[in-house]
Amino acid sequence: MTRTFFIVPILFALGVTGCTPSRPFYLHERQELAHYVDSALKPEYADVYHPRLEEVDKAQAPITLSNPEFIESWELSLQEAIHTGLQNSKVIRNLGSVTPFGFADGLTGRTVGSTTIYDPAIFETDPQAGIEAALSNFDAVFTSSVFWQKTDRPQNVNATSFGFIPFFYQQDQGQFEAAISKLTMAGTRFTLRNNTTYDRNNRGFGRALPSDWYTAMEIEMNQPLVRGNGTQINRIPLLLARINSDVSLAQFESSVRNLVMDIENTYWDLYTAYRNLEASKIARDSAQATWKIAFEKFKGKVETAQAEAQSQEQYFFFHAQVETAWRDLLNVETRLRWLMGLTASDGRIVRPADEPVQARVEFDWQEIHEEALMRSTELRQQKWAIKRRELELIAARHQLLPEVNLVALYRWLGLGDDLIAANRRGINFVSPGSMAWDEMTEGNFQEVRLGLDFRPPPIGARREMAGVRNAQLQIARERARLEDMELNTTHLLTTAIRNLDYNRRQAQTHFNRWATAQKEVESATALYRGGKATLDLVLEAQRRRAQAQSDYYRALGEHTKSIA
After folding, report:
1. pLDDT, position 104
2. Which site from 67, 199, 308, 356 is most exposed, i.e. has the minimal number of CB atoms within 10 Å?
3. Model confidence over 390-411: pLDDT tens digits?
4. Rounded CA gap, 267 and 254, in Å?
5. How far apart (Å, rounded) are the C-alpha atoms in residues 157 and 513?
């Protein structure tokens, strides 16, 4: 009856659930996974209060084409823009490849993966890989343990043993151990240890006291003679942590450099945007004047309706160009505000106060080439990577050595009826009332142990040999990467110098274009007024002038950016 009582529920459970159900099934649920769809998958919000920045709370409605009004124009110098950007950058911002960007890109690519001012300190205080973590290997370590054991068990003894050995063995035993050890930079480990044992048992034959205390103070030295010996091998974890910290600082430095570069480039992009807007407005106003002339001639039946419509189209074309230039200017201004850590809109509009460089700038190739190879943070990081691999190779070769340790121990010990008291009694063991600490501190009993501990590497040392070869290949790879990065730096610098010269010459060419186009517009307009030229000549000249003016300021901005 009892077995049936247990078997029936088990069989019922197996029949309901099955051994390997293909789909989850929940009792009291009308639909599969209904609870998880309705409740468990609802988004949760962290209960975190964090005050928002003033730039966020005081953000105003953006300036648009339909709402172009702003309170004032903020004349901003390049130095002030860089200073503000560095001051407001807890998160080191960079444009990277997220322009144009969406909401998701703006929140993840722009912020989550960005370098912050806290990164070097966070890396250095890493409890696993930081410098303090490496130094902790040489900290003094204190350990202690206390155990109490009661034994009560029968013994395999003959009943006729006259009671020398009790049939039931009973014992109360306490054990205490405390030790402090310290590893030195040379690999030597010193240990100061105290062992104390209390023993009370019923083996009365041959025992002077029913219970006794044993205590011993030990000084132990473990000195590696081959593997683990020397300051160099023991300092490798510390040096690796220091290298990782230096790499983190170099990464932070490159992030700050990129931020300054982005601010400067965006600053001159904003300058170019203002000049482009100015050129578009000049072209629009000129087209409007030409449309007015064509309209007057059309009313006087001197010009055709097609010519008047053509001049009108030219006006609306440049009007659209003005709106596009204004939109582009606002977008660049917003981008500069973001790099500076300012609110997107505060009623002011930023206007560059500095002018781009128009003079010819020359660099000495040998000087800047050596400076680029010496000061590049990327090359510095790669050199640290090579140094890291070299230290790892030293550590890998060290594993091929046998482990030979010299072990030396000196011990003071004492036994007594009691462990310790406030005053010395002058009674030695095995007399009743003797104390173990008195016996030990009198130095009556001392022991010495001296020896060698030898452990060779595994026969064949396959893992160790593979580690050495792997470290050698890692060094070869990092050196090849450094060589390629230096070559790439030379090519990039060559391209930068070539672009600097190109943009300067382009600025000169486009300026000459602009001056010539201005003369052409004035001449064509005068001829058209006098009826000696067609409207097409005027409209085409206006287009070329507007394009030449925009190209000049764009090349001038690129020339200044090339210097950076």
Report:
1. 46
2. 67
3. 999 999 999 999 999 999 999 9
4. 20
5. 120
Q: What residues have CB less than 8 Å from 197, skipping those under 6 apart? A: 173, 174, 175, 176, 213, 214, 215
Place of tokens 């982005």: 262
* The three-state (H, E, C) secondary structure of 276-298, written as one string: HHHHHHHHHHHHHHHHHHHHHHH
Report, in angstroms and rounded to the nearest whole number, the Rg of the chain calculated over CA atoms.
Answer: 43
What residues contact residue 153 under an 8 Å CB cut-off, 6+ apart?
168, 169
Task: Measure the CA–CA gap between 59 and 334, rounded to whole angstroms.
Answer: 12
Q: Which of 236, 202, 161, 198 has the alpha carbon at shortest distance from 419? A: 198
Helices (H), 341-461: 365-375, 377-398, 436-441
Q: How far is CA 330 from CA 32, 88, 118, 516, in A?
A: 53, 21, 32, 31
pLDDT at site 415 = 92
Q: Measure the CA–CA gap between 104 and 527, rounded to whole angstroms.
A: 57
Burial of residue 460 (CB within 10 Å: 0-12, 13-18, 19+) is exposed
What CA–CA distance (Å, rounded) separates 453 from 276?
82
In the structure encoding, which two tokens stand for residue 173, read together? 């035993």
Which helix (H) or strand (E) segment is 220 a member of?
A: strand 211-224
Sort strands 348-352 and 189-201 into parallel, antiparallel or unpaired: unpaired
Flag whether pLDDT at 98 surpasses 50.
no
